[in-house]
Design goal:
The complex is a heterodimer.
Chain A (H helix, E strand, L loop, with lengths): L2 H17 L1 H23 L11 H32 L2 H5 L5 H30 L7 H25 L3 H21 L8 H7 L3 H14 L6 H25 L6
Helix pairs in contact in A: 1-5, 2-3, 2-5, 3-5, 3-6, 3-7, 3-9, 5-6, 6-9, 6-10, 7-9, 9-10
Chain B lengths: L7 E9 L5 E10 L4 E5 L6 H9 L6 E6 L2 E2 L4 H7 E4 L11 H11 L6 H10 L15 H13 L5 E5 L7 H16 L3 E6 L2 H7 L2 E6 L2 E7 H8 L2 E7 L16 E2 L5 E6 L7 H10 L4 E8 L2 H12 L1
Parallel strand pairs in B: 3-8, 3-9, 6-7, 7-8
Antiparallel strand pairs in B: 1-2, 1-4, 4-5, 9-10, 11-13, 11-14, 12-13
Classes of the chains: A mainly alpha, B alpha/beta.
């Protein structure tokens, strides 16, 4: 195990986060505050409770996931894409470091940052709405799992992308819509039967449902199914990354 | 003499890219411990591919490479720890400081942080004053130094320099040559590729020539020069000569159209004939007022080799 190498990549990536602190931390917090003002206060005041939870509190887990998912993907993908773009990847490829260690460094840093953002948004939310977390330990476990899972996904995206356009394509055009339509701002039980069925094909539904369960003890889909979906997503990412390093796909010729 | 095993051993190495381009075929090469080895070859000959395979950046299609006895694939950790690489392109990250990026490299290669070593490397490369500068603020020459510092940060015993002096000013070139010599004195084996033949001529102990993915020659520099180096002896004559006297026919002398210059072309093996030639010339009653010899440079040798086999 090349510990110094993992530490070097991890601190290099974290240094990048702190160098761009405004963009990294402040912007998700600002965005989230705006959601609270618009959805929570302005619209929420006219909404009834959902599953016995006030609307303002109901949207908190979805908002956290919205940021955690997009930030995990964009940070992790940029982390591995940028060395590819500048050519400095040569150093990582020529270092005595295994694939697992490379992933630990990059994904570990991206997940750490997502975790930080998740916690900051939770704290910001607590300023707007009274929050009671039903299963705090599970909440932390899920937050950690999602951060790691989507950072892994971002790593794959960063390896695959051969331009900045592709890099922003997935978070903006796939993940954000899926999150919005995945029950961040409503319970999917409120949808007509047809759209309810369609929505069940959206993987983000399970993630948000699972996370919301840890807050309020209620969920759109069963906890077991959600957890299984989430874990298989992480397993699929890990399998794909293993394949990337085995074949050298887009990293080595 | 005890034969030390080579520090790098390349056996039957080949590389065919996905595009079908065969970059290397049947490469066999032994690099001796502690030497400076220059790899010469025209653009696209396979120099960088060969280096990138040894360093782990490109996957070989066939063959075997060991670095200090460690297989570069099955025992890559041990092999790569020994190797430092200065790439051809100026590929640096932009926003880190010099100190941070060099320290990063040391960590990446598995060595615990050691500020004293980083300080020494930066001082040796005249980068100490720039240690807190962001890399993007540096000039091209300074960036090149940073790449060398990064390659040396984990104290490798084998250093690859891929065209280290391409686009570098004279001063930095001299500095770089001095640094390479110092490293060699410290026991580091150095493999460099270059377009500048004078660089190889100045620095290398041995020279390998690669062309179209094949090593066409590996030779000690001195013996290569002796073997392939053409020499010419020119004599400026006092009096005009109509033709070369028969007595000198065996030397195949050339007479300039002016009739005032005789040229003798020979190689290293024929050096011993010079005194006889001079005796024969004065025996034939030819008086010369001046003479000079010239020797073909490595560049001529190289051009000859590559064009002969093309």
């Amino acid at each position: 195990m090349n510990g110094p190498a993992v530490a070097a990549i991890y601190s290099f990536e974290m240094a990048r986060t702190f160098r761009t602190i405004v963009q990294s931390i402040v912007s998700p917090v600002l965005t989230t505050s705006l959601y609270f003002v618009v959805f929570g206060s302005a619209i929420g005041a006219r909404m009834t409770e959902i599953d016995g939870v006030p609307y303002g509190a109901f949207i908190v887990p979805g908002l956290i996931m919205l940021s955690v998912l997009t930030e995990s993907i964009s940070n992790s993908s940029l982390g591995i894409y940028f060395p590819k773009f500048t050519g400095t990847i040569y150093e990582i490829l020529s270092a005595p470091i295994s694939a697992v260690e490379i992933v630990m460094g990059f994904v570990g840093a991206a997940a750490t940052k997502s975790l930080m953002i998740g916690v900051i948004i939770l704290a910001t939310a607590a300023l707007f709405v009274p929050l009671h977390i039903e299963h705090p330990v599970w909440m932390v476990v899920f937050l950690l799992l999602m951060s790691i899972g989507f950072s892994l996904f971002g790593f794959i995206l960063g390896v695959w992308a051969d331009g900045f356009e592709k890099l922003s394509f997935v978070p903006v055009l796939i993940i954000t819509p899926l999150t919005f339509l995945g029950g961040s701002f409503y319970s999917i039980d409120m949808l007509p039967p047809f759209w309810h069925t369609v929505t069940l094909f959206n993987p983000v539904v399970y993630i948000i449902s699972l996370f919301r369960w840890s807050f309020f003890g209620t969920s759109d889909v069963s906890v077991g199914v959600s957890l299984a979906m989430t874990l298989s997503f992480i397993a699929a990412c890990l399998a794909f990354i293993t394949w990337i390093f085995k074949t050298g796909y887009k990293l080595k010729s | 003499m005890i034969h030390m095993p080579s520090i790098i051993s390349v056996a039957d190495l080949s590389k065919t890219y996905k595009s079908g381009l065969s970059a290397l075929s049947g490469i066999n090469l032994e690099i001796e411990r502690g030497e400076i080895f220059a790899l010469l070859g025209p653009n696209g000959a396979g120099k960088t591919t060969l280096i990138n395979i040894i360093c782990g950046i490109v996957t070989p299609s066939g063959g075997k490479v060991t670095a200090d006895g460690h297989d570069i694939i099955t025992d890559y950790r041990a092999a790569r720890t020994k190797i430092g690489l200065v790439p051809q392109e100026l590929t640096t990250s932009a926003f880190e400081t010099v100190w941070a990026t060099v320290s990063f490299s040391r960590g990446l290669f598995g060595k615990p942080a050691n500020p004293a070593i980083i300080e020494k490397i930066l001082k040796d490369l005249s980068l100490w004053d720039k240690r807190d500068s962001k890399i993007r603020q540096l000039s091209g020459g300074m960036k090149r130094r940073v790449l060398i510092a990064k390659a040396l940060a984990h104290e490798p015993t084998i250093l690859f320099l891929d065209e280290p002096t391409a686009g570098v000013d004279v001063e930095l070139r001299r500095d770089m040559w001095n640094m390479v010599r110092k490293l060699r004195e410290a026991g580091v084996t150095i493999i460099l590729t270059t377009h500048y033949i004078d660089e190889a001529e100045e620095m290398a102990d041995r020279i390998g020539v690669i062309n179209k993915g094949q090593i066409i020659l590996v030779e000690e520099k001195a013996s290569l020069m002796r073997k392939l180096g053409r020499k010419q002896l020119s004599l400026q004559l006092h009096d005009k000569l109509e033709s070369v006297p028969d007595a000198l026919a065996s030397y195949k002398l050339e007479l300039a159209p002016s009739g005032l210059e005789l040229t003798y072309t020979y190689d290293a093996q024929a050096e011993s004939r010079i005194p006889n030639l001079l005796t024969a010339i004065s025996g034939a009653g030819i008086v010369f007022k001046d003479l000079h010899t010239s020797q073909s440079s490595l560049e001529d040798i190289f051009v000859n080799l590559v064009s002969n086999r093309a």
